[in-house]
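## Example record

The block below lists the input lines for one assembly entry, exactly as stored, with component labels intact.
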Amino acid sequence: MDFLSNLLLGLQTSATFGNLGACLLGAILGTAIGVLPGLGPTATISILLPVTFGMSPEAALIMLAGIYYGAQYGGSTTAILVNLPGEPSSVVTALEGYRLAQKGEASRALAVAAIGSFIAGTVATVILGLFSPPLVEVAIDFGPTEYFSLMVLGLIASIVLAEGPLLHALAMIALGITLGLVGIDANSGDVRLALGMPELYDGIDFVVVAMGVFGISEVLANVANEERRSIITSSLRGFWPDKAEWKRIAGPIMRGTGMGALLGILPGGGAMLASFASYSVEKKFSQGRDKFGQGAIEGVAGPEAANNAASQTSFIPLLTLGIPSNAVMALMVGALTIQGIQPGPMMMIEQPSLFWGVIVSMWIGNLFLLALNLPLVGMWAKMITIPYHYLYPAIIVFCTIGAFSLSNSVFDIYAMCVLGLLGYWLRVLGCEVAPLLLGFILGPMIEENFRRSMLLSSGDPTVFVTKPISAGILALTVLLLCLMILPAVRRRRSEAFHDSEA
Amino acid sequence: MLQAKSPRNLFAGLTYLAFGSFVLSQAWNYPMGTLSNMRTGYFPIVFAVVLIGFGLISIAQSVFRDGDPLGRIALKPTLIILSSIALFAFALPYLGLVFCLTLLVLLCALASPEFRLGRTAVAGMFVLVAANVIVFTVLLNIPMPLFGSWLSAV
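Predicted structure tokens for the full assembly:
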């Protein structure tokens, strides 16, 4: 059976000493940054991109993936113990989890979160393995028209959950695209927008943008308002759920996994949306729904399963179509490009060991994370209290040296400063910067696909709606846009965000 | 004098306007081509115009619609951190990695109102500098001047 032989290939690739080490490192780093204040997977992956230069593509991707879904585990720890979600996807975990911690049942909540995440991760890995090949089959026939529409869908979908008014999110995308256009135009060979600086002929380095806009600007935003964190120090022992509890959490975990797996695939969907959806469902339908608000374990199990499943299935568009569904995936595109690999449907065919190795490593990573999170929870709890002012000089140092190491030039460091300032200014303006990164990465690709489409259709723009697949994708995009403008949805969005601040 | 009801929108609009106008000024001279044969300037000009449009809409909104004030700007830490990074970049070839890193860590740490120069801080600094030197020069083999041209001569 194809599926089994693919899994075997993946196992062979991911079980090498080096790749296992990369996986473990990713899991540890992911949990750590999920727990630590002021540092998230996007910033961390940005900072580590220069380091991946020296690694094999498999190790690099395995490690970065581990950081991403590992952060979901770590984020729930802070959510439960401190009522400060480490990740946006742990916001709902804090709602019930912290209540449980206040009642002295922190270890129960933590255990259920970890177990739910592990089960979801296992199922999601299987889904990845089963559904990627057929998707690749379909995608191979995609032409520039379909790709263009898909990228537009990805960009628009990514701002569904963006904070703030629609206009500003769209402006961020436009800004990102313009930044991406700097450099030599592949078609004509002319230099564009380089302001006479030869260092910009190749464009602004993607890693510089990532580190400046996510790493440096986040430090600038956090430095002046450090929060004091105190954690619930009740004893953290005796945690494995008993039979009665299994009965309660089995349903939410299954439902959460299903929802998360589905929502993760949609561009712009992702872990946060999945966890919110699961919370709403459990609140309405689960056994313990009366207990919501006072510490219902279902409100931890479901959302945690959902966010982990979603963080894994969000790799599907990247691995099968080469299109990033969120900012972290955009960074993965960058990491692959650094390694000289072109993401897209051909990747599964040309680099099967990479493809299947990454998929199997996700399951191994979940195993590591389960082992790391349950017994070692005391250690992670201590890390929560590390003051930010010890942490951020390290972040700055990593970013600075990383920027230099890209092409051994101090110019990149200056560029990173400028972008850091820009990122900070945008945050002050209340704009979310993730769409900017997506626009930056997809901009040149969108231009190329648009150009080719127009060439093929001899300048007929209706081709995007006459070709069926493209038309369908664009219709979905328009639907999303309309939904975002509708007042009812607007209210929901701001409700969701204000709930999280409660 | 027209009062802006929404400072955030106003400044955001000005930012988009500035950016878009700048790009337009650069891309103005690039050949645009046609839809079926797009050339260098097509995308930059289109998106510059889009940005200018967004900017104008945002500014208009700021006058007519209530909105949020600007977020807090932490001017001092921002300036300190950014200038220390720039200083690092400037001094690296002359003073070398070890010295510049130490300087960078120290200056950056000073940007936080919470910083106290004590034993843990100094120890942490040593560890950080050492770790970075090891990771980047030894493990990853990136050619960087460890001590720079001025200090080597000494």
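Chain B touches chain A through 71 residues (CB under 8 Å). Residues 102 and 129 of chain B are 6 Å apart (CA to CA).
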